[in-house]
Amino acid sequence: MFGRYLQPSVRVATAARTARVAALRGFCSLRPAFNGSSNLLETVPTTYEEEKVHIDEINGNLPEPDLQTASRLRNIGISAHIDSGKTTFTERVLYYTGRIKAIHEVRGRDSVGAKMDHMDLEREKGITIQSAATYCSWEKEKKDYHFNLIDTPGHVDFTIEVERALRVLDGAVLVVCAVSGVQSQTVTVDRQMKRYNVPRVTFINKMDRMGSNPFRAIEQINSKLKTPAAAIQVPIGAEENLKGMVNIIDRVAVYNEGPQGEELRITPEIPAEVADLVEEKRQLLIETLADVDEEIADVYLEGEEPSVEQIKAAIRRATIARKFTPVLMGSALANKGVQSVLDAVVDYLPQPNEVLNTGLELVEKEEKPVKLIPSSSEPFVGLAFKLEEGKYGQLTYIRVYQGKLKKGTFMNHVKTGKKVKVARLVRMHSNEMEDVDEIGAGEICATFGIDCASGDTFIGHNAVNEITMSSMFVPDAVISLSIEPKTKDSGNFSKAMNRFQREDPTFRVRFDPESKETVISGMGELHLEIYVERIKREYGVDCVTGKPQVAYREAITTPTAFDYTHKKQSGGAGQFGRVIGDFKPIEGDNKFTQHIVGGKISEKYLFACQKGFEDCLEKGPLIGHRVLGVHMHINDGQSHMVDSSELAFRLATHGAFRQAFLNANPVILEPIMAIEITAPNEFQGNVVALVNKLGGLIMDTENGVDEFTVTAECSLNSLFGFATSLRASTQGKGEFSMEFLKYSQTAPHLQKQLIEEAEKKKKK
Fold first, then answer.
1. Domain 68-353 has what CATH class?
2. Which of 147-151, 592-596, 705-709 has the lowest mean pLDDT?
3. Cα dihedral sign for 87, 89, 93, 95?
């Protein structure tokens, strides 16, 4: 029954707000209106076919200069499972597009390091911690195309960086390892891409590695990601003998030559040893397209072979419609196959005007969904999707959805209503910047000196109506630890906490009044470890941390009714509030509703009841952890002309919540993690025994030539110190990754133990 806890985010919703959120879920992109009702949406598109009607209507009215600009623009992200070679791939993209003059490697082995990993910690650890934005140009068929590119982390602990990047991008390149194939974080990234309706092309990397098998990886994309996929290339040679690729659409062989693979030799002479494979995979490509594209299906059913132009057009249509992903292959480290991916970005990923973006416009005090118009001549609408502390102050990254942003002009911050000046406007290239005077619709830029949060909307200073855009999904923290500075001087410590919370919505800080400790929470041990190290490096504050703690949740299992009266009389005006209603478990977000007949409780007191409900969600009655999956409905009550107040009804709700919660068979939930372990085949028995010892549930085992992969579900509580145990069981050759999967009820003995510990803590 605890399947409802798969999404752990906790939000309180009134009936009206629930309807608003439901409306937004149909479109994870955004767009506003500029002159009244002309862009209002009567219904929210739920399929690409419905979106396409609006996209065609918008493009039919776009001025020619806007169409020309959009046709040369691509906003793309590069995402992958950790260690799939994503940053190495990005480094080659920057080199081949002329954005950098030399190739440098991950981990800074050449004392320089990859351009997009600009933090010292990233270069030392060899992982991407923060998403990094850049821009570059690519020439194809004598036309220059402009790419806004964001390189995202592959480690699940930094998943918010992927969320906020995909939220504002139009397309993506999914990098998959040719040896490991689809891994746990690949599945997570796929889910994020689908959440924001982001089309993708796939690049199978590390084709020069022993054990590489691109076609097995494609099978996994089809089966595990449930995304129709087919190769548009086949390799010439394999593993260390990888020589080049065959473009099976055009039937030409492509070889990378020159010191860094920068020169392409394209020839119609296909090696005899792959000729049959080329025709086999070409036929499979056409058959796969026939399943997702009507035009190719008609040609195929008539027994004809579609032309090269028809195949490419079908791939573009199906990719943008999110029904298909074309698969390319190569080796970024060996400088093979990267340029073909850049061509595929141009050919198959959408322009900004080929994606429907929507927003909510306030029209006559009512929020209505509207289309955003990707034209620089319309009123400005932009979304702040990332904050970063720079040497000139807070740097705010903005995606311009409509209109244009000009240096020296003003814009309105929708949340606060404040007018802010755009004093400086820049394009980012990792940690470097280039000043610009103006940024148009569909572009990504950054500006300084704006006080805002991630996900805030900005509109033109003279906008007729307010427009808001939905923010990105923010997962709940699953792990916490206490932290305090070693020295008495806590000024810099507080600055660091405030800054990191503002920049990273998954990093939470709270003060525990019972233990008198500062507690930080995040997505995993590495996530918090990185922040502790950054506090030391960037603010000069050494910290002492406690043991990691699991972020439990509290829930109920049975419905119950409540009738609670809060009464306090001590001379003069007292406190009185009575609330009656129902309390029941639900799937997903917490919910507060009310239906009062006859005005027994006034609107302002009902609002106080809702605030009281929200108070209680933060600290459950059992062990003081957050509450999940509760619906509180107030249908009756009583107030007093003199003694009732907002405070009285807020406190009455507190009492009713506690009373009902404890009567509804409450339980404690613990986070369950999906873990993926890879190790040499000779250690398979050791690894299986280790997982069983932890009480884990093995879900799948895949055996490769030299290595095996085990996928399992384990409670986070059992995984502390797992890295050490795995190293000991595999002679240091095993690797693992984990991500949050769901919340599940704890064992009765653990629940009893946790409650007893919480009671002891209260008495101290």
1. alpha beta
2. 705-709
3. positive
Q: For residues 383 and 30, what is the distance between their CA atoms, to the nearest angstrom?
A: 9
Question: What torsion do the CA atoms of 274, 275, 279, 285 make, to the nearest 10 degrees?
Answer: 40
C-alpha span between 121 and 143 (Å, rounded): 39
The Cα angle at residue 484 between residues 480 and 485, in degrees rounded to 5: 140
Could you tell me which of 126, 135, 81 has the C-alpha nearest to residue 105?
126
Identify the DSSP state of 247. Answer: E
Among 477, 662, 464, smallest CA distance to 554 is for 662
- 352-384 as b/e: b if 16+ CB within 10 A: bbbbbbbbbbebeeebbbbbbbbbbebbbbbbb
Cα dihedral angle (70, 73, 75, 78), rounded to 10 degrees?
150
Helix (H) or strand (E) holding 661: helix 646-663
Give the percent of the chain with pLDDT over 90: 54
Residue 278 clears pLDDT 50, i.e. is over it = yes
Type of residue found at 347:
D
Whether the model pTM is above 0.85: no
CB atoms within 10 A of CB 187: 18
Amino acid sitting at position 502: R
**C-beta neighbour count of 151 within 10 angstroms:** 29
Structure tokens at 649: 């009804």
CATH number belonging to domain 356-469: 2.40.30.10
The amino acid that residue 247 corresponds to is N
Q: Where are the alpha helices (DSSP H) in 558-645?
A: 603-618
3-state SS assignment for residue 451? coil
Q: Starting at the edge strand that comes first in sequence, how are the strands of the sheet with 143-151 ordered?
A: 132-140, 143-151, 73-80, 171-177, 200-205, 325-329, 229-231
State the binding site for GTP.
Answer: 80-87, 151-155, 205-208
Residues listed for the chain: 764
Q: What is the DSSP letter of 530?
A: H
**Reduced to 3 states, what is the DSSP secondary structure of residue 720?**
coil
Which CATH number does 479-550 carry? 3.30.70.870
Pairing type for strands 560-568 and 575-585 reads antiparallel
Q: Contact, 292 vs 203, CB < 8 A?
A: no
Alpha-carbon torsion angle 273, 277, 278, 282, nearest 10 = 170
376-404 residue pLDDT tens: 999 999 999 888 887 777 889 999 999 99
- Backbone phi, psi, residue 630, to 5°: -120, 135
- Determine phi and psi for 491, rounding to 5 degrees: -60, -50
Residue 296: how many CA atoms within 13 Å on its side-chain side? 24
What does the DSSP assignment read for 366-384?
EEEEEE----TTSPPEEEE
CATH of region 554-665, choose from 3.40.720.10, 3.40.50.150, 3.90.400.10, 3.30.230.10: 3.30.230.10
Structure tokens at 717: 């509580």
661 by Cβ neighbours in 10 Å (0-12 / 13-18 / 19+) ranks as: buried
**pLDDT digits over 1-20, tens only?**
333 333 333 333 333 333 33
- The string of pLDDT tens digits covering residues 455-479 is 899 999 887 778 888 877 888 888 8
CATH code of domain 670-750: 3.30.70.240
Distance CA 77, CA 99 (A): 16
Q: What 3-state DSSP class applies to 36? A: coil
Q: Decide if 479-550 and 670-750 have a common fold.
A: yes
33 pLDDT band (50/70/90 cuts)? very low
| Two structure tokens written together for 603 | 């609107």
The tokens for 239 are: 């593993």
Residues annotated within the binding site are 80-87, 151-155, 205-208
**166, 79 contact by CB (below 8 A):** yes
Report residue 594 as tokens.
Answer: 């009310």
25-29, 417-421, 460-464: least confidently modelled range: 25-29
